[in-house]
Every structure is written in structure tokens, then in C-alpha cells.
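For reference, the entry.
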Amino acid sequence: MKWIRERDALIAQTLAFVQSVSGRKDDFRQPDTVAVAPVLAAEIVSVQAVTVTIKPPHAEPPQQTAPPAQPLLASPSRNGDFRSEMQARIANFRKHQERFEREREEYCAATLIKLRAAIRDPEPRPPALK
């Protein structure tokens, strides 16, 4: 059962990761009957964040004469397109569901007709074997 070994290896890797992140060493017993794949782990020693700002060599101070431009919102025509697309999809879905409903009703009616005909006109029984 290969999947059991893979599952146990994944559990062992997950626990080793959790222990390395939290710094705790829980008492975790490995299953005796299943060979667990070795766990590869890397320890992160330190992380350093660096912020760099680059200025152009001949930059003039910015002149603010006009307020910053507002981000463009979706135009009403795009909203209308989205709305009409959704309405078309909903109408298509309703037509599809109505077609399924009609087919189910037709199938049910045809099956009942066959059943009633079989009850009304039973076929002769084959002769009994003795």
C-alpha cells in the first residue's frame, strides 16, 4: 500500500516543518510498521528587508498645479454589457431547465402509457415446466 507510506511521509514532513517553525520539539512517534521517507529540511537563519529608492540624476522638483487624476471607473456601457450578458445567460439556463423538465414529463408519460398497456393486455404466460 504505497499511498499509506506516502501519507505517513507527508505527515512526518508536515510535523517537522511545524516544529521547525514553532521551535517546539513535540514527542512524535513514528509508526513502527511503516518505513518513513527521510525528511529534508532547511533552516532559515535570517531575513533582511532592504528598501531602495532610486532618484534620476537630473530630476527637477515636481510641480503640483493640478490635483492627481482619479482612477477611471467602469463605464456604464461596460456595466450594461455585463448586465445584458448575465441576463442572456440566465435566460439560456432557464430555457435549458425548461427543456429538461419537458423531456422528463414526456418520458414519464410514455413510460406510464407502456405500463398501463402492459397491465391491460398481459402477454400470455409461457407454459409451466414440470
